[in-house]
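Hi Y.,

Following your request, here is the sequence exactly as I used it, all 127 residues.
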Amino acid sequence: QVRLVESGGGSVQAGGSLRLACVASGYTLNYAYACMGWFRQEPGKEREGVVTIGRDGNTRHADSVKGRFTISRDIAKNTLWLQMNSLKPEDTAIYFCAAASRRLFSDWYIGSNYRYWGQGTQVTVSS
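Below is the corresponding structure, written out as tokens. Let me know if you'd prefer a different format.
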């Protein structure tokens, strides 16, 4: 059984930083077809793909977070990280960790391509 557990959310002022963690169990980050990502969702809006990382370490970012958010992983700890810098009020959302069971390429940002999801962690950025 795959389980993803996020942590690290909180409230910060604009310009601040947060680091989210996602600990995976039942899912190996260097699995042949592993692809993990971070999504976010604001109330009343659709879930949005933020950033993803494939087994080969290649990453893809949404334009809105390029240069500010960095995804990384610790395979030994089976943990995915999201370092968020220069946070803006529009980054306020619930952030979800997700894992796919196949490689993703240009379709990385589509939520339905991810099979497993965490429960989410709230990030609030005040101006």
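The radius of gyration is 13 Å.

Thanks again,
Q.
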